[in-house]
Inverse folding.
């Protein structure tokens, strides 16, 4: 069997949201590894036709929300993900944006898909902020981390973190304090770490997300 990257493109439609603040190219490359052709777009009409939506993000929460609102993407994404139930993956800032609000540069309202707040990581003499680099992630037994051993390391790059109710949390990391590393709520998946930069374990996690989008079929990473 040829490698995934050499197979014919698969019909699953993955929309990657382009709102001027995401490392969309890296995310698209990780998805292409499995034989899909993701579409990077800021057009709600295109995202409406996607089977699953990925919201990557790097940078400031306030600017991200301003960009989403100015493009009409805040309301469109809420319709697609919350009302229509499209499968969703938020990455790094993309995870924080689904919270109610953030304290970064003053209080800013988020998409409010889950109950939670984004706060600055506390800094001390042993743990500097931002939290950049590889950290082990303790996971619960969940399909999001299927075939990924708890304690495996993933790549982080952030100064703020999500605080939310424990039932939403499917993975945690330590950086001076315990941090939420991933959440799952119904059709919503989200990670604080960057799976697209986390080598083999990150590819496995992306494959698990694509498996959900496929409705249960699977291909090993």
């Amino acid at each position: 069997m040829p490698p995934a990257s050499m197979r014919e493109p698969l019909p699953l439609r993955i929309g990657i949201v382009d709102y001027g603040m995401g490392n969309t190219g890296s995310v698209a490359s990780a998805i292409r590894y499995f034989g899909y052709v993701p579409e990077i777009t800021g057009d709600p009409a295109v995202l409406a036709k996607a089977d699953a939506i990925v919201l990557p993000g790097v940078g400031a929460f306030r600017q991200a929300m301003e960009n989403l609102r100015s493009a009409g993407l805040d309301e469109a994404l809420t319709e697609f993900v919350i009302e229509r139930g499209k499968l969703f993956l938020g990455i790094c800032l993309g995870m924080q944006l689904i919270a109610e609000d953030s304290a970064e540069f003053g209080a800013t309202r988020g998409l409010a898909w889950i109950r939670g707040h984004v706060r600055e990581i506390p800094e001390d003499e042993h743990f500097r902020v931002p939290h950049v680099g590889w950290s082990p992630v303790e996971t619960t037994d969940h399909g999001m981390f299927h075939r990924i051993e708890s304690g495996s390391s993933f790549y982080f790059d952030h100064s703020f973190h999500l605080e939310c109710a424990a039932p939403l949390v499917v993975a945690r990391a330590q950086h001076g304090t315990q941090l939420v590393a991933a959440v799952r709520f119904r059709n919503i998946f989200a990670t604080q770490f960057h799976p697209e930069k986390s080598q083999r374990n990150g590819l496995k996690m992306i494959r698990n997300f694509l498996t959900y989008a496929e409705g249960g079929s699977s291909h090993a990473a």
